[in-house]
Amino acid sequence: MEKKDTRTEIIRIGTDLISRNGYYATGIDAVLKEAAVPKGSFYHYFKSKEEFGLAVIEHFAERFELRLVASLTDEEVTPLNRIRNYLETGLARVSQNNCTKGCLIGNLGQEMADVNERFRTRLDEIFASWKERFAACLTEAQHLGELSPTADPHVLAGFILSGWEGSILRAKVMKSPQPMRDFVEVLFASALR
After folding, report:
1. What is the CATH number of the domain that holds 65?
2. With the C-alpha atoms ordered 124, 112, 118, 66, is the resulting torsion angle positive or negative?
């Protein structure tokens, strides 16, 4: 494998393991074993486990951003239906994973925000970026008359993001997607009218 491919493979495997087990419970040895890479290779690509964790966050955030943008800017669908489609797709993913993975950024936020300032800062930036994506979609919904002109798109976007992440957490705890279904139902029956 080329160096870049080895680094990418280590990050890909690390993303999967951290998604399932958390940052602290994912040992470097487990990642390297699954990647079939010697330990020296890890330190060739990453100065520390923290650097590796930040690379995993970037990898996930880049992939997720592409999905989020594609969903929330799909001009063939009305803005509120874009949000609904995005949430329904997320619900299907969590259901397919038997409510075990959730959102890597949300998981790491719960695990790392109080113990690692670099992680907390980067995770906060990612959440803020996602909030802005939702706010832009909601602003478009207002312009098209789908959403009340008195609604504050930024407040609603924060509510959607916080509520969605919370419902994912509850789905993991309950081992049931029901909290996510309930969130979508209440969101569209009450908040996005």
Report:
1. 1.10.357.10
2. negative
